[in-house]
Amino acid sequence: MNNTVPAVYQGLWRRRLLTTPILRDDTTLVFWLQTAAWHADLRIPADRPDFSGCVTLSDCSRAQLLALLGQEGFAGVTLIDGDTCEWQRCVDYRPIGLRDLGRMVFSSTADAIEEYGVEAEYTERWERVEEGEGSVDVCWSTDARAQILWLRAGRRFMRVRDRPLADAESRKYWYRLHAGMASDDDLRRLADCEISFGEIAGQAGYILHSTLPWLEGQSLTLPIEMLALQTCSERK
């Protein structure tokens, strides 16, 4: 497999349609940001409830916590082999334990992709989003809790922070959830994972969509490394 993702993949994509043998979904909000190696993906259902009045997970009711855990998203390294794309997940909001491989068919103008499942039966249609001038790249930062992955495509960015759980702990809480035995605290531990999508204006970033809804509309300080990134055409 190729360790560098071809330029035609790089940038920001929005999913417009998912079809499976039992489902047609054109309402879930889905963004995929792809760099030369790393990707991030955010999926928010259209029926996610209102979170007005919530500013932390502690403010969420059980019903709200369960709704959060109906979201999806992931981030990791992308590998290309011919027309097959594999998204290797280093962070996974709702892990399913399966590989994620798609056969990719680009439109003649490379502004749309039909993705066909390789190990699962599905089709997704992706459309390229105009992201504005700027770099397509990735950097890391660290806060008091965790390492944070930042991806940028022009004026758009994604920020990813994994839940602060060891793999064994995570599996334990997911098992409790699927078995109907999870406490509210268990649900909060699982929902403590941020995948945010936003826009860059000057030296600041503004969150437009997030797995933590109360972050939406907030501004944040971008890493110096992200602001210093050069445009793709300037990188050697």
Outline the biggest β-sheet: 8 strands, antiparallel, barrel
Poorly predicted spans: 230-236
Provide the spatial order of strands within the biggest beta sheet: 1-3-4-5-6-7-8-9
Mean pLDDT over the full residue set: 93
Describe the structure.
The protein has a single domain, classed as Lipocalin, CATH 2.40.128.280. The two termini are 22 Å apart. A hairpin with a 2-residue loop joins strand 13 and strand 14. With 236 residues, the protein is mainly beta. The strands form two sheets. It has an eight-stranded antiparallel β-barrel. The chain has a six-stranded antiparallel β-sheet with strand order 10-11-12-13-14-15, with no helix packed on it. It is built from four helices and 15 strands. 13% of the residues lie in helices and 43% in strands.
Q: How would the blueprint of this fold be written?
A:
Layout: E1 11-20, E2 23-25, E3 29-34, E4 38-44, H1 62-68, E5 72-81, E6 84-92, E7 101-106, E8 112-117, E9 123-129, E10 136-142, E11 147-153, E12 156-161, H2 167-178, H3 184-191, E13 194-201, E14 204-210, E15 219-221, H4 224-227
Antiparallel strand pairs: 1-2, 1-3, 1-9, 3-4, 4-5, 5-6, 6-7, 7-8, 8-9, 10-11, 11-12, 12-13, 13-14, 14-15
Helix pairs in contact: 1-3, 2-3
